[in-house]
Amino acid sequence: MDIQALRSTNPDHWMRAAAIRALTLDAVTAANSGHSGMPMGMADVATVLYEKHLKFDAADPTWPDRDRFILSAGHGSMLLYSLLYLTGDAEITLDQIKNFRQLGAKTAGHPENFLAKGIETTTGPLGQGIANSVGFAIAEESLRARFGKKVVDHYTYVIAGDGCLMEGISHEAIGLAGRQQLSRLVVFWDNNNITIDGKVELSDRTDQVARFEAAGWHVQEIDGHDPQAIDAAITAAKKADAPSMIACKTHIALGHAAQDTSKGHGALTDADQMAAAKEAYGWTTGPFEVPADIKTQWEEIGSRGAADRAEWQSRFDALSEQRRNEFTRTMTGAAPKRLSATIKALKKQNSEAAPKVATRKSSEMVLEVVNPLMPETIGGSADLTGSNNTNAGDLGVFDVDNRKGRYIYFGIREHGMASAMNGMALHGGIRPYGGTFMCFTDYARPAMRLAALMQVPSVFVMTHDSIGLGEDGPTHQPVEHLAISRSTPNTYVFRPADTIETAEAWEIALTSNSTPSVLALSRQGLPTVRTEHKNANLTAKGGYVLADAEGKRQVILIATGSEVSVAMAAREALQAEGIGVRVVSMPCMELFAAQDDAYRKRVLPGGPIRIAIEAGVRQGWDRWLLGERGREAKAGFIGMNSFGASAPAEELYEHFGITSEATVELAKSLL
Ligand SMILES: Cc1ncc(C[n+]2csc(CCOP(=O)(O)OP(=O)(O)O)c2C)c(N)n1
Predict the structure, then answer these.
(1) Residue 118: its pLDDT value, please?
(2) Which ligand 1 atom minimizes the distance to the CA of 127?
(3) Cβ partners under 8 Å of residue 463, min gap 6
(4) Which atom in ligand 1 lies closest to the alpha carbon of residue 446?
(5) Nearest CA owner, ligand 1 atom 8
(6) What's the 284 CA to ligand 1 centre distance in angstroms?
(7) Ligand 1 test: best mutation among 28, 126, 262, most atoms within 8 Å of CB?
(8) DSSP type of residue 378
(9) What is the pLDDT of residue 134?
(10) Cα of 610 to ligand 1 centre, how many Å?
């Protein structure tokens, strides 16, 4: 690569981009870790994007109508941090750049959305950013249809590397975006032909241009170091009526001895090589020093959008008060006032009617009343709509010619769906929920984990939550999935026992603003166990006494979901023999653990036998069986310790010993 030619052809652009390259080299060297090559390779693209196209105002990184910039290749985090610092972001200061990757810094190894307002999403697990971006673009389309172009009118830009495009999730994302013709989505592919192990050819020969075209994208190929070509390509991409991919031919670690090699991917810290690279760039200042004139140019770019923002504000102010309030409520994720009363009414009605329904059906009943109330919900399923009962409440279908539709056919793309949901939630203004079988949380898991880490309230509607699904057999019967979900920090795992608990779980999920929810719902019909109406949301306590012992309390049965009725039947049998049994319903362990000690002690006092009943593995239960005043000699578990089998559900419950009879027997043996 002829650096001198690049320098002399576009000298001003060159120095602005060189600022990113120099800061990256300095920060990675100071941290003695990180990834230098990607920011150095994509500095030109990012510079032109920020200078000429990205609608943003560094003074207000949360301005709702800003363009979104997503660094899917999150290892190149210094690219984003440099851009934020250079443009004058209040949080990513020079000090933060100097403390790259250090404890407590906002400049973490990979961008974390919750550390700074200017970071749209957490990236690092490759492919997540590009899949999130599909959700961002859907959110923009949906909100534009709802609130109008005057207040919602922006683009989503993404930088994705070879790694992002090799990950399977990218296929799901590209397919969905292509089908939905998300024309406000522009992806730059950092086509540098290098990954960690070497050249891309080691493991891949995909024609990416043909691949994107095949999925219905608008595609261009450019030299990623030519500012005019970059500018022209972005201009064309914005005009396209399809999502756009710009293949940017770049050189990783441009201008460094490690250029075009896999060594260039990682931390470039050699002092002599760094000095040589900076000399080639014409960069003469010391470490972390950006010459004042270059910093000023960048700050002008940072404030370029101030006028746009002011104009947007006056358009917004001209809306009726009701529209303004609704927009603000929607964007801040506040639930409508009527939600609580609606949930209470549904609970009351169902406590009285006491239907025997599957909790997936209960969930549909909740959505039927909640969706009309909450125009911010967007629901969907990964091709299991009829099984997940997710399409309720007259949502209409989100499609190219109906952006007001709120139901998305995600296709058989669990991972892409979950990641797009996170993108919608991160964009703001949308409360996404999406369904699949509980067993396929495995297929969505990386995005579910990120929802928890990123503190976004995506709702994962996971039906067919145990062997109770029956004949589909062990491939479809979750056994370990509750434990896996519960082991994830900042995740509510709800396993409601009936319609009442399902309504309560949904209420919590829909009013949470920083915790995702997993709703584990049954395929099989379940009797109503909450037959006495209570206004209070008992599920919010996580666990509560559903039925207390008559006479001396000798046994406490703790159960969730479909096994709560098993516990109730066992209680009846034991009480008939004069053995006092309390039943504790535990729809959400995380919320129970969050209660104060006194409450937990009231629900789980020391002394009685304790038996937990759940058609899943024991892992996660021992705190409630052995801890919290429990004792090993007086504790038992009724559940699964193997995979399931293919048979009618009732036979499986017998076969695996998850019955009231087995519970009675175990209780007696422990007494
Ligand atoms: C899901 C996932 N798998 C593996 C990694 C580890 N990893 C980080 S960067 C990278 C190579 C990416 O190559 P490319 O996208 O071409 O980035 P470049 O070499 O251009 O910086 C790998 C394997 C990761 N971050 N995420």
Answers:
(1) 98
(2) 1
(3) 358, 360, 363, 384, 387, 388, 389, 435, 436, 437, 438, 521, 522, 523
(4) 1
(5) 75
(6) 31
(7) 126
(8) E
(9) 99
(10) 48
Query: Do 460 and 518 meet the contact criterion of CB atoms below 8 Å apart?
Result: yes
Position 238, amino acid = K
What is the DSSP code (8-state) at residue 199? B
Ligand 1 pocket, 131 CB below 6 A? no
Q: Which residues are catalytic?
A: 414
Amino acid identity at 283: W
Return the residue matching tokens 């010619």. 401
66 pocket-lining for ligand 1 (C-beta < 6 Å) = no
Cβ of 71 closer than 6 Å to ligand 1, yes or no, is no
Per-residue pLDDT, averaged over 23-39, amounts to: 98
Distance 161 CA to ligand 1 centre (A): 8
CA 93 to ligand 1 centroid distance, Å: 27
Structure tokens, 315: 């358009």
Token pair listed for 65 = 């109508």
pTM over 0.90: yes
**Residue 333's pLDDT band (cuts 50, 70, 90):** very high
Listed in sequence order, the residues at least 6 apart from 318 whose beta carbon sits closer than 8 Å to its beta carbon are none
Contact at 8 Å (CB) between 541 and 592?
Answer: yes
The CA distance from 568 to 571, in Å, is: 5
Where would I find the beta strands (DSSP E) of 479-621? 492-494, 517-521, 544-547, 553-559, 580-585, 609-613
Tell me the CB-side half-sphere exposure of residue 122, using CA atoms within 13 A.
Answer: 22
Residue 377: its H or E element: strand 377-381
* 127 CA distance to ligand 1 middle (Å): 9
Q: Which of 67, 222, 65 is nearest to 152 (CA)?
A: 65
- Cβ atoms of 418 and 485 closer than 8 Å: no
Q: Residue 531's Cα: distance from chain center in Å? A: 36
Q: How far is the CA of 275 from the centre of ligand 1 (A)?
A: 27
- Tell me the residue length of the chain: 671
Check if the beta carbon of residue 445 is closer than 8 Å to that of residue 429: no
Q: Which two tokens stand for residue 640?
A: 């699964």
Substitution site in 78, 195, 200, 450 for ligand 1 pocket (most atoms within 8 Å of beta carbon): 195
Shortest-distance atom of ligand 1 to CA 41 = 20
User: What are the tokens at 258?
Assistant: 């490690």
Task: Indicate if ligand 1 lies below 6 Å from the C-beta of 196.
Answer: yes
Beta strands in 49-201 (DSSP E): 68-71, 156-161, 185-191
The CA distance from 567 to 124, in Å, is 44
What residue type is 671 in one-letter code? L
The first and second tokens of residue 91, run together, are: 């949080």
Distance CA 650, CA 669 (A): 25
Tell me, using a 6 A CB cutoff, whether residue 37 lines ligand 1. yes
Separation between Cα atoms, residue 171 and residue 182, nearest integer Å: 15
**265 in contact with ligand 1, CB cutoff 6 A:** yes
Whether 1 has a pLDDT exceeding 90, the answer reads: no
Quote the DSSP letter at residue 255: T
- CB-CB contact of 520 with 588 (8 Å): no
Give the model confidence (pLDDT) of 595-618 as tens digits: 999 999 999 999 999 999 999 999
Alpha-helical runs (H) found in 181-239: 208-214, 227-239
| Tens digit of each residue's pLDDT (9 = 90 or more) over 122-158 | 999 999 999 999 999 999 999 999 999 999 999 999 9
Q: Is residue 659 helix, strand or coil?
A: coil
pLDDT of residue 162: 98
Residue 387: exposure state from Cβ atoms within 10 A (0-12, 13-18, ≥19)? middle
Kindly state if the Cβ of 161 falls inside 6 Å of ligand 1: yes
pLDDT digits (tens, 9 = 90+) for 355-404: 999 999 999 999 999 999 999 999 999 999 999 999 999 999 999 999 99
Q: Is 103 in contact with 125 (CB distance < 8 Å)?
A: no
Kindly indicate the confidence band of residue 35, based on its pLDDT and cuts at 50, 70 and 90: very high
